[in-house]
Amino acid sequence: MTPALELQGISSGYGEALVLREVDLTLAPGEVLAVLGKNGMGKSTLLKTVMGFLPLAAGQVRLFGESIGGHPPHVVARAAVAYTPQEQALFQDLSVEDNLRLGLRRDRQLRVGIERAGEIFPFLPQRLAQRAGTLSGGEQKMLLVARALLCQPRLMLIDEITEGLQPSVIERLSVALRAECERTGVSILLIEQNVGFARGLAQRYAVMKRGELVDQGAMHGEDTAARIAAHLNV
Ligand SMILES: Nc1ncnc2c1ncn2[C@@H]1O[C@H](COP(=O)(O)OP(=O)(O)OP(=O)(O)O)[C@@H](O)[C@H]1O
Ligand SMILES: [Mg+2]
């Protein structure tokens, strides 16, 4: 089966300084792979490189068999890739409705889109007129995920969505993403430091250390918890 995402020997970084070093990774269709790792190891750099925000210094990126290495972010996004970055990604001064609208290909899909967003997170349709910047941190993350799902992605790149959130919000995000996986078979490359959240969603894990993937395996293997703990020193 053609992988949803295939990285072969990719290296990239910022200017002359390489952060990623010859990263190989394969994500099967419908699979969720969690990339774990401590701060500053290159996890966000990995997603930015796949999205085309950073140039490839070396290697190949294939999306459902098609080479996309070197393509700009809007072209990658058009191939049904939804990216939820770690840093602020909503339009703070726009309403909830306008932020959702940005996830839709056509304006006439708005009514259906809002309905769908309400199925994912029921609070959203009641807050359409509220400025996104005045939502709580957890609500903003849920809006971000709803907007990403409205694009009907084949691949999601999710960067530390649980950072700073309380357990009940993390659980709602987990439930929503699991439901989407079952409904659509979307593939997800999940960057996480919350191992519990990652275990609830992912079938496989990989650990990134100083720009390299140093370990990969089944998420629910016998010795997985111990291996992950050893890498993260928890
Ligand atoms: N815009 C930038 N310019 C220069 N160096 C950068 C830039 N962004 C990140 N880096 C460096 O690249 C390395 C990897 O950063 P990256 O953001 O990918 O780490 P991360 O694993 O996502 O960390 P965290 O878990 O804290 O988000 C770090 O040393 C960081 O300082
Ligand atoms: Mg990061």
Notes on the protein architecture:
The protein has 8 helices and 10 strands. The chain starts with a strand and ends with a helix. The protein folds into 2 domains: 156 residues, P-loop containing nucleotide triphosphate hydrolases (Rossmann fold), CATH 3.40.50; 61 residues. It has a 6-stranded mixed β-sheet, sandwiched between helices. It has a 4-stranded antiparallel β-sheet with strand order 2-1-4-5, with helices on one face. The longest helix has 18 residues. Strand 7, helix 6 and strand 8 form a beta-alpha-beta unit. The protein is an alpha/beta fold and 234 residues long.
Structure summarized in a few sentences:
This protein is of the alpha/beta class and 234 residues long. 34% of the residues lie in helices and 27% in strands.
Topology readout:
Blueprint: E1 5-14, E2 17-27, E3 32-36, H1 43-51, E4 56-63, E5 66-67, H2 73-78, E6 81-84, H3 96-101, H4 110-120, H5 137-150, E7 155-159, H6 167-184, E8 187-192, H7 195-201, E9 204-209, E10 212-218, H8 224-232
Parallel strand pairs: 3-8, 3-9, 6-7, 7-8
Antiparallel strand pairs: 1-2, 1-4, 4-5, 9-10
Helix pairs in contact: 4-5, 5-6
